[in-house]
Design brief:
With about 500 residues, the protein is of the alpha/beta class. Helices cover about 40% and strands about 20% of the residues. Helix 3 packs across helix 4. The structure holds nicotinamide-adenine-dinucleotide (NAD).
């Protein structure tokens, strides 16, 4: 894909209209070849305030509509995503650098998230019980008000769909802050929502960086904040939003361990581990980052190297997001090499003909990593896997448990009993058995443990219904002496 086209400046989307703000613009670069494809003005508190005012006004009428009415809009919106699949996919490739197939999968996943959202009328039925004679208790799920969603760069289309369809379907209105690195897809999402019939002010977009995030955390009109991004920023957002008395769920970074046992199916394990570490150029919070090889797994490692050699930057491997990301990832590989690890496959210095300005790192496999090395514990966020050798399953689980993170963990084995031990003892929110990217599908919820998530609820699925609603409890005494007929 070429990036010749220079788009107009990205605008905020407030009250159903694209509006310009007056701040200094930032360049939006395509990581495929380094071309500047757009500019993005950095918004301020005043812009967030404008969006909150619009969302507050819209909340009054939107929250008064029935969930069935709201679902009609999301049925239409979901089919617009399908109609515009190719265009959205290309936009995602342009701004994020992933392959066409990976980008398309993101749009498809977004459609699936909308399918869950339109099923909410079937799920969110309220509770009622006669608790004593003539007395009834009732619980209704009510929306919270104006809510916010802050997104990272790595899934420009999917992550906004983790939050927006459910939050709006449940009667809230929203201010969305996309990553300043990938703001283009959300522009189209806003246009398509409007085309589907979403009333003005229900969904608003404010572009920018840190200042927008801080303003969201501080603004008294925002009742709930969801965040997806790195752990450092997740901590800042969680502390700031909750200290301002908002509810908050903040998903952070990851360091996912795949435990490979000697009885694992050779071909399936090698291809799965390699796909997990290199898909989306390793820029997935569910990517395999450490493989814990238990006992005699050399045959699996050899096969992994063979598989990984088939992954070619610019062909079936996309770019990483920026020059800084490439430098950081390559720095980790160099540090591991200096610390005595063995580089079995080296992705440093990757170049793609015709896209010399792009940011590519080839698949990298590092063996004999020890726990003191930075590649063993820090999030690299590139197509790199570190292999740590363990003598038995207990040691492997101890290694997994020693991570500060806890997004995903997986085990590759043909033994049900050993797999069950990992399911029970791994300290992670999402576990895979013979699956390298164990993302739960709706209606199951997505969310990690430890420093991979702060807050109580998960961000998708049934658990998100808790997050985006508050319970209204009503106790009613029905008068048994009441007339049964108005005229009698
Ligand atoms: P990031 O934390 O740098 O940015 C996320 C958002 O926070 C962006 O919108 C950004 O503008 C804003 N931001 C950045 N620095 C800030 C600061 N100092 N104060 C306030 N706001 C700030 O994350 P990223 O680089 O865009 O995304 C990659 C990270 O996201 C990785 O760590 C990855 O693991 C994580 N991630 C986690 C999940 C998950 O489900 N746990 C999913 C996707 C990505």
């Amino acid at each position: 894909m070429e990036t010749k086209e220079k788009r107009n400046e990205v605008k905020n989307f407030i009250n159903g209209k694209f509006v310009r703000n007056g701040q200094k613009p930032l360049n939006v670069e395509s990581p495929i070849d380094g071309a500047i494809v757009s500019t993005l003005p950095l918004s301020t508190y005043a812009d967030v305030d404008q969006a909150v005012q619009a969302a507050s006004k819209a909340y009054k009428t939107w929250s008064a509509t029935t969930i069935k009415e709201r679902s009609q809009i999301f049925f239409k919106y979901r089919s617009l995503l399908e109609t515009h699949m190719h265009e959205l996919t290309q936009l995602n490739v342009l701004e994020n650098g992933k392959t066409y197939g990976e980008s398309k999968a993101e749009v498809e996943k977004s459609m699936e998230l909308c399918e869950f959202a339109v099923s909410l009328p079937q799920i969110v039925n309220n509770e009622v019980q006669e608790v004593s004679s003539g007395v009834e208790c009732r619980t209704e799920r009510r929306p919270i008000g104006v809510v916010a969603s802050i997104a990272p760069f790595n899934f420009p289309i999917m992550v906004p769909h983790w939050t927006m369809p459910n939050a709006l379907m449940l009667g809230n209105t929203m201010v969305m802050k996309p990553s300043e690195l990938v703001p283009l897809s959300v522009v189209r999402i806003a246009e398509l929502l409007k085309e589907a019939g979403l009333p003005d002010g229900v969904f608003n977009v404010v572009n920018g960086g840190k200042e927008v995030v801080e303003s969201i955390c501080d603004h008294p009109g925002i009742k709930a904040v969801s965040f997806v991004g790195s752990t450092n920023v997740a901590k800042i957002v969680y502390k700031r939003a909750t200290s301002n008395l908002k509810r908050c769920v903040a998903l952070g970074g990851a360091k996912n361990h795949l435990i490979v046992l000697p009885d694992a199916h050779l071909d399936m394990t090698a291809s799965n581990v390699v796909a997990s570490m290199s898909g989306c150029a390793g820029q997935r919070c569910m990517a395999a980052s450490v493989m814990v090889g238990v006992d005699k797994v050399q045959h699996i490692i050899d096969k992994m190297v063979e598989e990984a050699k088939k992954i070619v930057p610019g062909e079936n491997l996309g770019s990483v997001i920026s020059a800084a990301a490439k430098e950081r990832i390559e720095g980790y590989i160099t540090a591991a090499e200096k610390a005595g690890a063995t580089i079995l496959l080296d992705g440093r210095g990757a170049k793609v003909a015709g896209k010399e300005g792009g940011y590519y790192v080839g698949p990298t496999i590092i063996d004999h990593v020890t726990l003191e090395m930075s590649v063993a514990s820090e999030e690299i966020f590139g197509p790199v896997i570190s292999i740590i050798r363990a003598k038995d399953l207990d040691e492997a689980i101890d290694i997994e448990n020693s991570s500060n993170y806890g997004n995903a963990a997986a085990v590759f084995t043909q033994s049900g009993g050993l797999a069950k031990q990992v399911i029970e003892r791994a300290s992670a929110g999402m576990i895979g058995v013979n699956i390298g990217v164990p993302v739960p599908r709706e209606p199951f919820s997505f969310g990690g443990w430890n420093e991979s998530k702060f807050g109580v609820c998960d961000i998708t699925g049934r658990s998100s219904v808790e997050f985006w609603t508050q319970n209204k409890k009503t106790t009613i005494k029905w008068n048994p002496e009441a007339q049964t007929n108005w005229m009698s």
